[in-house]
Design brief:
182 residues; alpha+beta; Rossmann fold; N-terminal domain of TfIIb; 4-stranded mixed β-sheet; 42% strand
């Protein structure tokens, strides 16, 4: 059985529009609280989703609640980027993403090292005006995730740098980590 949890009703509507999307049960709720019951063989958070929880406490809560719904042989799979702090100069970054004769898209980012938070505004300037799209995240290092997992009664089973199962090294820019019950 497949179930989903999403905080965004708009994202659930996009799922519903896809073939077979109507048949997947989805709970609108907070992924840190895992508002589902039952036992699951697989729980996964991909595409940096964990980093949408904006504090270490909330991320640790997510690990605990996933552990609560995993069956004894269950796996928790997390896909995230590995932070590259060299992207920032004095904890900030400004980048032109696109420039044409009649528009510009600029990314403005601040890094809060103490809280491991990155806040970004993607600013579009065009003939219709100024449009802002914000992104906020709280990154975690792979070793920090391992500690959160341990506190939740999980342990790292394997870690790869990507879905092709390439080895995870100190040069990896992302990871797919698989946790199991201890």
């Amino acid at each position: 059985m497949v179930e989903g949890v999403d905080a965004s009703a708009a994202m659930v509507e996009r799922l519903r529009a896809k073939p077979g999307g109507e048949s997947i049960p989805v709970t609108i709720g907070d992924m840190a609280q895992v508002p589902v019951s039952g036992r699951f063989r697989l729980v996964y958070l991909v595409a940096n989703t964990l980093f949408g929880l904006l504090s270490q406490a909330r991320q640790a809560e997510c690990f605990r609640n996933v552990a609560r719904v995993l069956n004894p042989e269950g796996m928790f799979v997390v896909e995230c980027f590995v932070p590259d702090l060299t992207r920032f100069d004095r904890d900030q970054r400004v980048q032109a993403l696109a420039v044409t004769e009649d528009s510009a898209i600029i990314e403005v980012t601040r890094h809060d090292l103490a809280n491991q938070r990155i806040t970004t505004q993607i600013i579009t300037l065009d003939e219709t005006g100024t449009h802002l799209r914000s992104v906020a995240l709280r990154y975690s290092w792979p070793s920090e995730m391992d500690l959160m997992a341990s506190g939740a009664g999980l342990r790292l089973r394997e870690r790869h740098s990507d879905w092709r199962r390439q080895p995870f090294t100190s040069a990896s820019t992302s990871h797919v980590s698989v946790y199991e019950r201890t």
